[in-house]
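Lecture notes, unit on protein representations.

Consider one protein chain, 484 amino acids long.
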Amino acid sequence: MRFIKSFLLYTLLFFAPWVLLYRTGINPMPIQSEDTLPSIFTAVAISKERTLYLDSYYDMLVDSYPQPDDKQQELGLTPFYLKKALDNQSGQTHYLSAFPITPAITALPVFMPPLLLGMPVSWHNLYVLSHLSSALTMAAAGVVFLYLIERYYLPGMRKKAVFLTFIYLFCTINFAVVSQAMWQFGTLQLFSLLALLFFNRALEIEAPNLSAKGASSYFFNIFMSGMFFGLAFITRPTAVLPWFVLLIVIYFSKYKNLGMLLGSMFTFVFGLFPALGFLIFYTGKFYRSFANQGYVEQIDVGWKSQVVNGFFGLWVSPSKGILVYSPVFLFIFVSIFFLVRKIKNRNFSGMDYQYVAFISIVFMHTIVLGKWKHWYGGWSFGYRMASDVMPYMVLALIPFLTSTAKEKFRKPFYLLVCVSFAVQLMGLVFFDGIWHAAYDKGYSDTSWLWSIRDSEAAFNIRRMLVKIGYLERACEVCEPSVFE
């Protein structure tokens, strides 16, 4: 019952701010990015027509959200967030999401009932349904995270578990971004946390050999963990990094028993197959080709950034950095210090292997995404491209929270928690794309992401000064009336 109450509370805290800010006109932007549109309309198409084809809604989409370089629709360009699929038999061209469909599928419990009962497919209704779905998905992830912490990582420390869940949900861009739109990230995090839950359930089972009592339960949980990692992978391919790292954890936990080691690794790998089979099925049936997807197309053309610039940008860029938008994560480095000291003192416990794994996942992810041309997340608030590994980032704080240094750093820690929360409130209130419109030069020249004077925070301060009449405009290209 307590977890149900938490779920309802989290949903309210995610959904209510958008309603308030949108209805009052403080932040009138109903959809954060065109990237989220395919998930919304795929949920509609499945609910009403039992298909992935978005043909019935193509005109509605391009009239409101056309291809950016064809806003007047004079060139007839298909928006970047859609893909075409040609039916060879009928010769008809169909339109589909350019992104994975798992967020749309998880949103069906929200979309399907009202649409089947006759709710019109209007923009207003879709705004409400998409925000509610996003809030529910992130709330569900929050509940799984809370249970995971209480059960495995901080048993008997309920207050710390609740506090860590608060950080996870409200002091990161989960609050300002992920819970506010139908991105892939909320669904990815939910699947990742469920995978981690079954992973820990397996590790707590004493099964010394393949025929021992409890072995079947152990392998079932390993399989379920692999299956949810598979679902995370087909949601965003970056989920393969945590899966691979935890495969190494399995090795270190079972390497002394060859039979259990091979059985565990095979089962963990085999767990990926249901999700991969589903991916192959729906791409073959609807997309006509596995290669006819946005992510597949970008494999050869997306790695255009300098990895050093992207990596450090993800961490410390004034307008996108993890440590700027959620400075509480500075204490990850304190956790690293204590883990290294444990290794030197030969005081390394079984759970410490997981903390090392989580920190490795975070740094591997930011190194890999640092090479991605849109490491800064495009037109979005904060470190969006690092949100795939958000659960691991927060879990990486636990070695610090359980260390002797906790009391010594108590005040700066709570101060950075408050700052992180305040930054997310800033995102809820201010993010509407205007800062990007004023300064965004794209991925070929990222100098705009390193400016302190023209950073997003500084720009938002100037916007407030314009509002109260202290400044005439917030930037050189801004019209004074934009902020009135």
